[in-house]
Amino acid sequence: MRALLAVREPKVLVNLGAWSIGRKMPASAFPLSRSHSYQVGASWHWCVADARAKGQEFKILIAFNAGKFDYRAWLSLRYGNDYALLARLEHHRSHKGWHIHCKRGPCDGLVRGVVKEPLDRDRSRTCGAAPFEVGHHDALKLAFRSFNVSGESQFSEGELHL
Amino acid sequence: MKHLLCQAFCDALEVRPVPVGWAIQTSYTDAGGDPLLMYLVRDNEKGWRVEDDGNQVPMLEACGVDLGGKSRREAFAYLLREFGARFDPEERTLCSSSLSESEIGAAAVRFMGLLLRLQDLALLSTPFVRNAFREDAITAIQHAFEGEAVIEEKGQLAQDMVGPEADVVVRAAARPPVAIYIGTSEERALHAIVSKMEAQAYRHHEGRVALLVERAKTNPVKEKTLALAYARLDGVVSYRGTERDALAKLKALAGLTSALEAAE
What number of H helices and E strands is found in chain A? Predict the structure, then answer.
């Protein structure tokens, strides 16, 4: 399956971690491979969710830094101990504003364990200049809508908010 | 001339307010095409500091750059010293020391130099290097077998085979196919061994399975796995430095006259 189709594939949320801030993200929270992971710092609000579709396991990192108007929602596909990062919905305080990066080509051909690949394998699309107004609830909604994840209603509001 | 250069540098400069201070965008981008941003953050009532978005070091680590290793740790510390910055391990940010307003301009230029130098470390990360090897090898195989065999990327020896696909399957007329696994990881070498077992023991196919590693000694495959590959596979071939011989060996495995034999 191509990466773009995997991003659009309807997914069901199977686990939603609690929001965290004030401490460095542990290495085990969002692994990319057995040896390395992505970790945001203590100023970031972050949580990790797991979703499934057609027997495939996905991991989603949702993180934002309200002080810097920075947001990221990353979708990865699990291959044993390795993960292929399929897409990144992001907002930076730059001319790009809201934008999404999506890998090109079949999922099986993606380099696993890396965030970025060369530009010819990473398409980027600007999504607009909407102002940065993100709280915990919005951060999840944005990610789940972009990655076609449903089933968040089974998780209580306590898990959706701090 | 100076006016033209100043215009080129400054036209791309954008400064936007954010809750912690100011976001500064320059014309430089990272390897993924995202702009390199730095922030001017209110440090205390009188001072400021320049810091990154908190993404530069995490992204390097996510690329497989181990800043905890001795040589990289020293290189990282050297860069921080050279550009007058420090790394906050809890916040995961790179930042300057406390600055007065008159010091901000020079410090910002110096800080951007640090961000640019850090980008180079990502290019040497293991996954990038491994991927470059895979691409080089597949291109070379395609050229070597052009007109003599059909090259199938991401394929199986036969339709009834299950399990991890080979990077390349070579199909020459009236000869058994050759599945080539490119040894970019321990996992790929194990895939080759499993594929050979399945073809031989369970499916009874005549196809051959080969493992192509980048270098004979320094490669990501563990010694035990490599020994098993030597014992069980139809060929284990080292590529770098002996590219011509390696491709000749693969041609021989495919039952084709090798380039070396033809030349001789």
Answer: 3, 8
Task: For residues B251 and B254, give the distance between their C-alpha atoms in angstroms, rounded to a whole number.
Answer: 5
Contacts of A38 (CB under 8 A, 6+ apart): A30, A32, A61, A74, A115, B58, B59, B61, B62
Of A37, A68, A115, the CB nearest to B18: A68
pTM of this prediction?
A: 0.69
The CATH 3.40.1350 portion of chain B extends over 127-263
Neighbours of A15 (CB within 10 A): 12
- Asked if the Cβ–Cβ distance from A40 to B14 is below 8 Å, we say no
DSSP helix/strand/coil, B87: strand
- Cβ contact B31–A33 (<8 Å): no
The CATH number, out of the four listed (3.90.1530, 3.40.1350, 1.10.1200, 3.10.450), of the domain defined by the range B127-263? 3.40.1350
Q: Does B20 touch chain A (CB under 8 A)?
A: yes
Sheet with B178-182: strands ordered across: B150-155, B166-171, B178-182, B208-213, B235-238
Integer Cα distance of A123 and A142 in angstroms = 19
Sign, CA dihedral A41-A35-A57-A147, equals positive
Number of Cβ within a 10 Å radius of residue A92: 22
How far is residue B83's CA from residue B114's CA, in Å, rounded to a whole number? 6
Minimal Cβ distance to B32: which of A32, A36, A122:
A122
Give residue-wise pLDDT tens across range A136-148.
888 999 999 999 9
Sheet with B21-29, strands from edge to edge, namely B14-18, B21-29, B35-42, B48-51, B93-96, B85-88
CB contact at 8 A, A148 and A11: yes
ipTM: 0.84
Distance from CA of B260 to the nearest CA of A (A): 32
Q: Are B88 and B97 in contact (CB under 8 A)?
A: no
Phi first, then psi: give them for residue B24, nearest 5 degrees.
-115, 120
Q: B100-139: per-residue pLDDT in tens? A: 989 999 999 999 999 998 887 766 665 556 666 887 788 8
Closest approach of chain A CAs to the CA of B2, in angstroms?
Answer: 26
